[in-house]
Design brief:
Elements (H helix, E strand, L loop, with lengths): L17 H11 L10 H13 L5 H24 L1 H6 L3 H36 L14 H19 L3 H31 L16 H30 L5 H20 L9 H18 L9 H4 L12
């Protein structure tokens, strides 16, 4: 066996560096999608939805569509992040991205569990049509195109690993899919099914779904860390002059029509998409301001993952 010698560093990792600190935070905040989401909470969600006499099939379909979209999105990014982990040179970066892939897989597990233990039983008990989370009805053209573009951006790294291609990959994955689309969707769920967030999204008052919101709260915490890592990497590329800020702005803005269309699609009279579109636009603008300003400070990782009370923090 050939021993690989590292001549440019004394120790294997830098636990006090940026990526090392993010990895340590991921380890510290580890959660289990089976053990840390109480079975009792999922059972309570199920019983509340079954017992909600006002719940129409259209309303239930809107809830079910969101769970399907979240689950498919988490599964897609679990697969698509692999090329980035292959091209990163620094072991601390590699360790963090490895932890991120693991966390995306956990998120996929949570939504699969929620479908099996809540969505399907509610549909059966209420006499609604039974569907699968992979049913094509849930995935419109904008959703498919956005994730296809993300996959293509990641694959380009294996063909031509340039600073610009890296910036575009981070923009697609960390700053649009995770920072804008996912965080906006999770904010909408928390607003509609808990006391947190906005009060004007749902057409009526829905029961609090502690199992769904509990899982999403933990997922949002993970993704705050993921977003911070991507923002740091893009800001670094711009500050070092390796990528022009216009590339970042154009990439992000070119993807926003897909996000707006996904948020607006399929809500009918159940949820008002306008506050979510505004929320996502504001979030994108704030990201652009931070990553294109070399002197702007990124929120601390502990602030990025803090979601106490399911309320968006200053970091969001």
């Amino acid at each position: 066996m050939t021993q690989v010698e590292d001549t440019d560093r004394e120790m294997r990792i830098d636990p006090d560096g940026f990526a090392g600190g993010y990895f340590r935070n991921a380890v510290y905040r580890h959660w289990d999608p089976y053990e840390d989401i109480p079975q009792a909470d999922l059972e309570a969600d199920r019983e509340k939805l079954i017992g909600d006499e006002a719940l129409t099939e259209e309303e239930f379909e809107a809830i079910r569509r969101n769970v399907a979209l979240f689950g498919a999105g988490e599964e897609a990014v679990t697969e698509d992040l692999a090329p980035l982990s292959l091209v990163l040179e620094d072991v601390d970066d590699q360790m963090f991205v490895s932890s991120q892939i693991y966390e995306e897989a956990k998120h996929t597990q949570f939504f699969d569990r929620y479908w099996r233990e809540v969505i399907d039983p509610v549909a059966e008990a209420r006499g609604f049509e039974s569907t699968r989370p992979t049913d094509e009805r849930y995935f419109d053209d904008d959703y498919v195109e956005l994730f296809d573009k993300n996959e293509a951006a990641m694959q380009r790294l294996l063909e031509e690993d340039t600073p610009e291609n890296r910036a575009e990959a981070y923009c697609h994955y960390h700053l649009v899919i995770e920072s804008v689309l996912a965080q906006t969707g999770y904010y909408g769920i928390q607003s509609s099914f808990s006391d947190g967030g906005a009060d004007d999204l749902a057409a009526r008052e829905f029961p609090d779904l502690d199992g769904l919101v509990g899982g999403i709260t933990k997922i949002r915490s993970d993704e705050g860390r993921h977003v911070g890592f991507g923002m740091h990497k893009v800001q670094q590329l711009v500050a070092e002059g390796k990528v022009d800020a216009s590339v970042v702005q154009e990439t992000l803005q070119s993807l926003m029509p897909h996000v707006a269309a996904i948020v607006q699609e399929g809500y009918d009279d159940t949820f008002d998409p306008l506050p979510l579109v505004e929320y996502s636009s504001e979030k994108l603008q704030r990201r652009i301001e931070i990553i294109t300003d070399s002197e702007a400070d990124l929120p601390d990782v502990d602030e990025l993952v803090e979601i106490e009370g399911a309320q968006p923090t200053a970091a969001d």
